[in-house]
Design a protein that fits this description.
Layout (H helix, E strand, L loop, with lengths): L19 E5 L3 H6 L9 E5 L4 E3 L13 E3 L1 E7 L9 H6 L1 E9 L1 E2 H10 L4 H4 L5 E3 L3 E2 L10 E6 L2 E7 L7 H9 L9 E3 L7 E2 L5 E6 L3 E6 L2
Parallel strand pairs: 1-12, 3-8
Antiparallel strand pairs: 1-2, 4-7, 4-13, 5-6, 5-12, 6-8, 6-9, 10-11, 10-14, 14-15
InterPro entries: Fumarylacetoacetase-like_C, Fumarylacetoacetase_C_sf
Keywords: Metal-binding
Organism: Pseudomonas tohonis
Length: 221
């Protein structure tokens, strides 16, 4: 699978896509809607690069593995290495782009695995599980505590969140991730989803927005 990061102005980033680091339950209201406890520290998991598909032209979902949930998230593209104990300034300097993204979840599969106490990567890391839009440059967004993320499906707004409501804000989140594993150019961080997750169906028409910065129409094909 080949995926190229593309800025809205048409320029491209010339390094390969790396891992996708995700944070679970980073919005308290989302944790509550799934009857999950609110974590006291970042809940991290990883999607491989093979899970990433571009939003342009539409995307497909598994049709034989139960319910597929959408989770709209702010994606952060890493452009410089980050290892243990970076400062806030170093973390900010390492960001080369922002984009809206979808973290797709096989919710029925995940529930069965959690009931057994088993890892649930197969519910989160399958091919096509990360739908990624083109990035806007990192310096296009100044206030990291005021980034809006919105998902509209079939004309209805399903998620409308803002980074100000994150339990772990963007830069402290990058610092926390780097305590466990380094971030490299081409890595992407999905920063969590706000309240409003739900099922996707074939034929759904979507608009995914980084509010005030980028907007993309797509669909489940």
């Amino acid at each position: 699978m080949s995926y190229q990061h593309q800025y809205v102005d048409g320029t491209r980033i010339h390094f390969p896509l790396g891992k996708v680091v995700c944070i679970g339950r980073n919005y308290a209201e989302h944790a509550k809607e799934l009857n999950n406890p609110v974590p006291t520290e970042p809940l991290l998991f990883i999607k491989p690069a093979s899970s990433v598909v571009a939003i342009e032209g539409g995307f497909s979902i598994p049709e034989d593995r139960g319910v597929v949930h959408y989770e709209a998230e702010i994606a952060v593209l890493i452009g410089k290495p980050l290892s243990r104990n970076p400062s806030l300034e170093e973390a900010r300097d390492a960001i080369s782009g922002f984009a809206p993204a979808l973290d797709l979840t096989l919710r029925d599969v995940q529930a069965r695995l959690k009931e057994k106490g088993w890892p649930w990567e197969v519910a989160k890391a399958f091919d096509g599980a990360c739908v990624l839009a083109p990035f806007v440059p990192g310096d296009a967004i100044e206030a990291l505590d005021d980034i809006g993320i919105r998902l509209t499906i079939n004309g209805d707004v399903r998620q409308d969140g803002n980074s100000r409501d994150m339990l772990n804000p963007v830069l402290p989140l990058l610092q926390a991730i780097s305590q466990h594993f380094s971030l490299q150019p081409g890595d992407v961080v999905l920063t969590g989803t706000p309240v409003g997750v739900g099922p996707l169906n074939k034929g759904d028409a979507l608009t995914l927005e980084l509010v005030g910065h980028s907007s993309f129409d797509s669909g489940v094909i």
